[in-house]
Design brief:
Elements lengths: L1 H71 L4 H26 L8 H24 L3 H5 L1 H72 L6 H14 L13 H28 L15 H59 L3 H7 L3 E6 L7 E8 L2 E9 L3 H21 L5 H15 L11 E9 L4 E7 L3 E5 L2 E5 L18 E4 L4 E6 L7 E2 L4 E2 L2 H11 L4 H16 L8 E7 L1
Antiparallel strand pairs: 1-12, 2-3, 3-4, 4-5, 5-8, 6-7, 6-9, 9-12, 10-11
């Protein structure tokens, strides 16, 4: 009779324990399945959405740079084509991709912010199209009012609106990242909660069993006392090694169940922590086919392991492909660079020696900084009888195309001055214009390449300098007063308006500093706001430093433009020639 009562008490206790175990298993399974879904959501939806937002931000930056180049760099055909492609293809594509993945990423609640950003971007591209239409042809760039209006629109509308879009986009990206961090924190907290819950439920069951044993202690024989001792040790975290006498099958089964439960909950806690840290090779052995918690842990591990291996395989495949492409590109770049390096030797050999120039003009310097290895800017020098001719020429484009034009210009100038003995500044440019048109067959082709030039003919005996310019000016300083003579508003070569170049004569009876240059220095982007250096700042440099030795002046101008552009790329070839009479 006593044994029967004890049996009922034990059955009641085990019913409570099994109920708690079932609840714990279901609770843990739900947490694990939710975490699996969160991981797949982050990898498949949120990360690609964030990458598309970053790609969109780069498109905003590119549009700002490309429309600025459209306005300020007339012959930059490559950037113009890239801007057209951005408006027609790149932006609509990324916009559609972002809107498509908006719902999947869980950011629908922020759709109004995103639509506002796209409205601003559409407004910006509308301004870009307006500027592109305003400056669509060569004649438009000759219209000073159009250029002024376009530059003003860049400063007052394009740049502020681009900055506003980037600010809104960065706020949206930061908000998305914060929500991603919340999901990640939920995953970490749920794993910790699973670990704590497993331990709490395990020890809770031990405490319930302990209380049950104390309650029925008077009705259970020696095996119950032994179970009591085991539970006390479990409550202290000790490993159970004690064996129970097989005097009562019911007690023996209960102790066996305790061993398994204790071990199972400890394994669940440890394995959940390992899997949470990415150790997908953790060995999982469910107690049986009906072990919900064990099987859920095993399924989660296998799912995450398979996904991780799939991702690693894709990464290895893409890495191998990138490596192959990198080798091909490096080999091509090596060959191209070798050819360009050889070309620069040819170009340097064609340029006059600086020492030769300084023999005739001791107080002089040449600051020559190609944008690429070879240059579309070049300087030219010759002495014909009692006259010295020196010029700063800016050819269409830069790099290899510009370098080809520079070789044509050097060869034509040598023929005009050294062979045909033409030494008048305006006549030299007139003849150079005619010969460029003939050399490039511009009367029968669509070729519009040409040159901007500033050319001086120095008569040291009569202390005077004749100047003629094709768009580019001459700056000279006498008695601490700076004078600027603008070149004619047409280039050398191309289908230009009719008319001859103008000759200007400057008396050098008093000490005079002269400067001729291309537009690369003044058009360089930099400074705190990423703007152009501007001609007014360049003229201030000349005024502040014209009394210094010319070697020191060159160093100052070089350091100034280097500090100004900082980490930004060089915009164009840079050429400044300075001399004193």
């Amino acid at each position: 009779m006593r044994r029967k009562i004890g049996f009922k008490k034990l059955v009641t206790g085990f019913v409570v324990i099994l109920t708690i175990t079932l609840f714990s298993a279901i609770f843990s399974s739900v947490i694990i399945n939710n975490n699996s879904k969160r991981i797949l959501h982050v990898n498949n939806d949120i990360y690609p959405f964030t990458d598309k937002l970053a790609e969109f931000e780069q498109i905003v930056l590119n549009s700002k740079m490309l429309i600025t180049n459209w306005v300020y760099l007339q012959y930059n055909i490559e950037d113009k084509e890239e801007l057209k492609k951005l408006i027609k293809e790149d932006y609509p594509k990324i916009k559609q991709e972002i809107l498509t993945s908006l719902k999947k990423s869980g950011q629908e609640k922020n759709s109004e912010s995103l639509h506002l950003i796209f409205e601003k971007m559409d407004e910006l591209l509308a301004i870009n199209k307006e500027l592109m239409n305003t400056l669509s042809g060569f004649d438009d760039y000759e219209d000073a009012q159009k250029i002024f209006d376009a530059e003003e629109k860049i400063e007052e509308e394009v740049i502020p609106l681009s900055n506003e879009i980037r600010t809104l986009l960065n706020d949206f990206i930061n908000k998305t990242k914060k929500e991603n961090d919340i999901i990640r924190d939920k995953m970490i907290n749920s794993l910790k909660q699973l670990e704590i819950t497993s331990i709490v439920f395990g020890f809770g069951m031990f405490i319930i069993i302990l209380l049950s044993v104390i309650y029925i202690q008077k009705n259970i024989t020696i095996p119950v006392t032994q179970v009591h001792d085991i539970l006390l040790k479990l409550s202290k975290g000790e490993i159970i090694k004690q064996k129970v006498k097989q005097t009562d099958d019911i007690i023996a089964e209960m102790v066996s169940a305790l061993y398994k439960l204790s071990d199972n909950f400890n394994k669940v806690a440890v394995n959940a922590q390992k899997i949470g840290k990415g150790n997908f090779d953790t060995e999982i052995k469910p107690l049986s086919d009906k072990d919900i918690l064990g099987n859920a842990i095993l399924e989660m591990r296998n799912s995450l392991k398979a996904y991780s291996e799939e991702m690693e395989a894709k990464v290895r495949e893409r890495t191998a492909e990138i490596s192959r492409q990198k080798e091909i590109i490096e080999e091509k770049n090596k060959n191209i660079t070798a050819s360009i390096n050889y070309a620069v030797r040819i170009q340097k050999a064609s340029l006059p020696q600086v020492t030769t120039i300084q023999t005739e003009l001791p107080d002089s310097f040449i600051l020559f900084k190609p944008k690429d290895i070879v240059s579309g800017d070049f300087y030219w020098f010759s002495k014909s009888e009692d006259k010295i001719i020196i010029a700063a020429i800016d050819c269409t484009g830069h790099g290899i195309p510009g370098a080809f034009m520079s070789l044509i210009g050097i060869n034509l100038l040598s023929g005009i001055v050294n062979e045909n003995k033409i030494t008048e500044a305006d006549e030299i440019l007139n003849e150079l214009h005619r010969r460029v048109q003939l050399a490039l067959k511009q009367d029968v082709t669509e070729n519009q390449d040409g040159m901007d030039a500033a050319l001086c003919v120095i008569d040291k005996n009569n202390k005077k300098v004749d100047f003629a310019g094709a768009k580019n000016p001459l700056v000279y300083i006498q008695n601490d007063t700076l004078f600027r003579i603008k070149g004619d508003k047409k280039s050398i070569g191309g289908k230009q308006v009719e008319g001859k170049f103008t000759k200007h004569t400057i008396s050098a009876e008093e000490p005079t500093s002269f400067y001729i240059f291309s537009d690369g220095f003044q058009d360089q982007f930099g400074g705190k706001n990423g703007r152009k250096f501007m001609i007014k700042n360049m003229l201030n440099l000349f005024s502040d430093n014209h009394k210094l030795p010319y070697s020191k002046q060159k160093e100052i101008y070089d350091n100034t433009i280097t500090e100004w552009k900082s980490s930004l790329p060089q915009t164009d070839d840079i050429l400044i020639i300075g001399f004193k009479l």
